[in-house]
């Protein structure tokens, strides 16, 4: 598929700006040039922040009814161009066209939920007379926006991740400066256009494109950025915590999500859902299944069925509706996971299927006998690779599931409510999904993890809580 390269502009406070230096956006499937975007400088980032600061300083905060109207109109704008958005997502990233359409639907929902939650940002009265001597005092607390939110997003959900930051930020009365990843920036620019067309005041949103090495520090270190919302890798997240200074942080830093399959599980359902959870978006999913712990009595049956279903997946053209899995985001990433798998095999792991690379494509891969200390078992693979482990019982499964520095989400398959509750209580994760894979989420639920998986929670209402501050008002009525 050919695309006319028009040269996209970046959005700084309502103005679409060009730069002499540009970044090429290429389709990872065939390395074809899709478009170019400006390679912004630190000065461009500072300009975007300064415009946002002027808007915030002038106290021109949008009334709630306007926030609601703008977010709903933006959702309508995305809906009217659904296929355009889906094609952009599929071409600049790894998702198939069907996966991309699902992402557009989620984005529309996020914008509408943000509009709904904007009307629900409410405080409470405080009973000051609970303290002796305060009988004549009454008051309440309310919420106010932090000011300017700096948003940094990853490639795997190039539209949805931006919406998860921009929607709540605008709903709660903030300005927001977005730095999308340089490999998938087009979706963010198109969303910015949809919001401007919906009537958003220009200074409240900027989408600054460029290299993270150039723009990251100016964004996270800037004193007027009062919150950083970041989705990406653990190493970068750790750097942000060291550089940001005293400000709010919300970070989702990935995982290597476990799924537990017990003897009493519905194996057909467990296989179907776990295969889907392992290989959607070419495995480049923070809650995608990476490790499966199966009780020993059913491990052979589960493994046979799992491998069979994995082999049925069709890998190829992302724009074909018959394709189940596209390429990884780059050939370098495919080479990385190829090396990880080869290292695991050298250490004793066995490849049950897959394990082959062609360019950026890496076949859906199932491993067994994986050493617990290998990278593929301990770190976030972020690739279409899943490891199967036999365990004695639930206790061992939970112990092994917890034995990593990640804890975003986990899944467990069992009809036994007591065992399900034991897993919920003991698994060190931010969410436990029962009778489904770890790869399940709705955008209204609190989403985030523990340990190296990050800080805080997304999900619209919970993101709004982090993007606001409480202020107490107390009246002394004594005369």
From TrEMBL:
Transmembrane segments: none annotated. Residues 17-472 form the Aldehyde dehydrogenase domain. Keywords: Oxidoreductase. The keyword Oxidoreductase applies. Belongs to the aldehyde dehydrogenase family. This is Aldehyde dehydrogenase family protein. It comes from Halobacillus naozhouensis.
């Amino acid at each position: 598929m050919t695309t006319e390269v028009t040269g996209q502009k970046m959005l700084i406070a309502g103005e679409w700006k060009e730069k002499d230096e540009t970044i090429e956006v290429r389709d990872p499937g065939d390395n074809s040039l899709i478009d170019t975007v400006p390679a912004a400088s630190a000065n461009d980032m500072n300009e975007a922040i300064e415009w946002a600061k002027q808007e915030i300083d002038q106290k021109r905060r949008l009334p709630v009814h306007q926030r609601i109207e703008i977010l709903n109109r933006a959702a309508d704008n995305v809906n009217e161009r659904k296929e355009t958005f889906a094609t952009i997502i599929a071409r600049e990233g790894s998702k198939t066209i069907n996966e991309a359409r699902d992402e557009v639907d989620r984005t529309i929902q996020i914008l509408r939920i943000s509009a709904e939650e904007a009307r629900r940002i409410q405080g409470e009265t405080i009973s000051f007379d609970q303290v002796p001597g305060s009988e004549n005092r009454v008051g309440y607390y309310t919420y106010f926006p932090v000011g300017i939110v700096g948003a940094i997003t990853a490639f795997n959900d190039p539209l949805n991740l931006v919406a998860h930051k921009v929607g709540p930020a605008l709903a709660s009365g903030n300005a927001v400066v977005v730095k999308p990843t340089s490999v998938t920036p087009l979706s963010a620019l198109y969303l910015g256009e949809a919001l401007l067309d919906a009537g958003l005041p220009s200074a409240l949103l900027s989408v600054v494109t460029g290299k993270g090495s150039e723009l990251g520090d100016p964004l996270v270190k800037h004193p007027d950025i009062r919150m950083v919302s970041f989705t990406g890798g653990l190493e970068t997240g750790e750097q942000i915590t060291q550089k940001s200074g005293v400000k709010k942080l919300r970070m989702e830093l990935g995982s290597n999500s476990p799924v537990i399959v017990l003897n009493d599980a519905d194996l057909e359902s467990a296989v179907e859902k776990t295969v889907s959870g392992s290989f959607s978006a070419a495995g480049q999913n923070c809650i995608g299944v990476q490790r499966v712990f199966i009780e020993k009595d059913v491990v052979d049956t589960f493994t046979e069925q799992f491998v069979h279903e994995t082999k049925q997946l069709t890998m190829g053209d992302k724009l074909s509706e018959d394709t189940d899995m596209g390429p990884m985001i780059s050939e370098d990433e495919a080479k990385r996971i190829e090396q990880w798998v080869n290292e695991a095999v050298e250490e004793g792991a066995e490849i049950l299927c897959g394990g082959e690379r062609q360019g950026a494509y890496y076949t859906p891969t199932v491993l067994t006998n994986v050493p617990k200390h290998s990278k593929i078992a301990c770190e976030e693979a972020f690739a279409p690779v899943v490891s199967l482990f036999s365990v004695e019982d639930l206790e061992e499964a939970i112990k092994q599931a917890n034995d990593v520095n990640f804890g975003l989400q986990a899944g467990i398959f069992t009809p036994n409510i007591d065992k399900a509750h034991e897993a919920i209580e003991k698994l060190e994760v931010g969410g436990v999904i029962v009778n489904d894979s770890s790869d399940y989420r709705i955008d209204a639920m609190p989403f985030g993890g523990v340990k190296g998986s990050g800080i805080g929670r997304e999900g619209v209402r919970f993101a709004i809580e982090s993007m606001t501050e409480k202020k107490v008002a107390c009246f002394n009525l004594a005369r």
